[in-house]
Write a structure and sequence with these properties.
By secondary structure, the protein is α+β, with helices and mostly antiparallel strands. Helices cover 18% and strands 43% of the residues. A 4-stranded antiparallel β-sheet has the order 3-2-1-4.
């Protein structure tokens, strides 16, 4: 990635959904399970993201146990 950008890979380790479709999602940096995950672990050995989500459509985008790329781009 270019300067001002970074990519990480995280796994959903917790998902709590309310009856209205809102909820929270917890993700942790990947460390095993594939060669790609082990490569990410070399550069991002630990990390966590916790999201509180009010949009049911956004909440549905997260699946327990699934892995997601997280792209960071410097805000101007």
């Amino acid at each position: 990635m270019s300067e001002g950008k970074a990519r990480a890979k995280f796994k959903v380790v917790g998902k709590t959904e309310g009856t209205d479709g809102t909820g929270s999602v917890s993700l942790q940096a990947v460390y095993t399970g594939s060669e790609e995950n082990e490569a990410f672990f070399r550069y991002t050995p630990a990390g966590s993201i916790n999201l509180n989500i009010l949009n049911p459509h956004a909440m549905a985008a997260f699946e327990q146990g699934a892995e997601y790329y997280v792209d960071f781009t410097k805000a101007e």
